Amino acid sequence: MWDWAFTIDILPVLARAAVITVQATAIGFVIAALLGLVLASIRLSSPAAGLVVAILVELVRSTPLLIQIFFLFFVLPKVGIVLDAFTAGVLAIGLHYAAYCSEVYRAGFENVPRGQWEASIALNLSPWTTFKDIILPQALPPVVPALGNYLIALFKETPLLSAIAVVELMQRAKIIGSETFRYTEPVTLVGLFFLVMSLLSAGLVRVLDGWLSRRYG
């Protein structure tokens, strides 16, 4: 049932594909975290712009990620915007999870007492200084665990990129299986990789959460 020689042979091939998976995860989450913060800030600063952002967030959250990947890769070229498969896939993942992250940030902002804003105005602090030095340090620590959950969820969504021919880890395992008619080893190794990386990510999130709690708690 299990061929160790075959397992050793395919490990380097899967390792190279794992690099693509990690890259897609890292870039996608950076996009999601930063764009989510921007969207939440816009909703906080202007009721009119906030309404537009709220509609966009609900639109993104209410449609499947796979449809969004197809839209960026197949539909945008019709209007002259051509993206390679990796870029389109990572951008779709980042935009999709930015909608979720924005709601997490918004909850963090709403958790900051209103008196903090009023005190900043009384001290004649600029909006940027208030946001950067007063509000953000109080809003971020409570939402880090939720953002960490989305990081892990985003990581496990990367196999969807195979739908537009990005040869990430799961796609490479399927290719190996179709060529050798052996699926047990490659699929098991992929499952173990996702398990280990998810546990490591969860551990790093807990460390970051503890550090932020000690620094700003």
Report on this structure:
The protein has 217 residues and is mainly alpha-helical. It has a single domain (4-216), classed as Orthogonal Bundle (MetI-like fold). The chain contains 8 helices and no strands. It has helices at 4-45, 47-61, 65-75, 85-111, 114-122, 127-157, 169-180, 184-216. It is flat, with a radius of gyration of 21 Å.
What's this model, at a glance?
This protein has 217 residues and is an all-alpha fold. It has helices spanning 4-45, 47-61, 65-75, 85-111, 114-122, 127-157, 169-180, 184-216.
Order of helices and strands: HHHHHHHH
- Gyration radius, rounded: 21 Å
The CATH homologous superfamily name equals MetI-like
The first-level CATH class is given as Mainly Alpha
**Structural domain count:** 1
Average predicted confidence as pLDDT: 92
Q: What oligomeric arrangement do these chains adopt? A: single chain
Unreliable segments of 5+ consecutive residues: none
Count every beta strand, where a strand is a DSSP E run of 2 or more residues: 0
Task: Tell me the β content.
Answer: under 5%
Total helices: the number is 8
Topology:
Blueprint: H1 4-45, H2 47-61, H3 65-75, H4 85-111, H5 114-122, H6 127-157, H7 169-180, H8 184-216
Protein name: Ectoine/hydroxyectoine ABC transporter permease subunit EhuD
Subcellular location: Cell inner membrane; Cell membrane
Family: Belongs to the binding-protein-dependent transport system permease family. HisMQ subfamily.
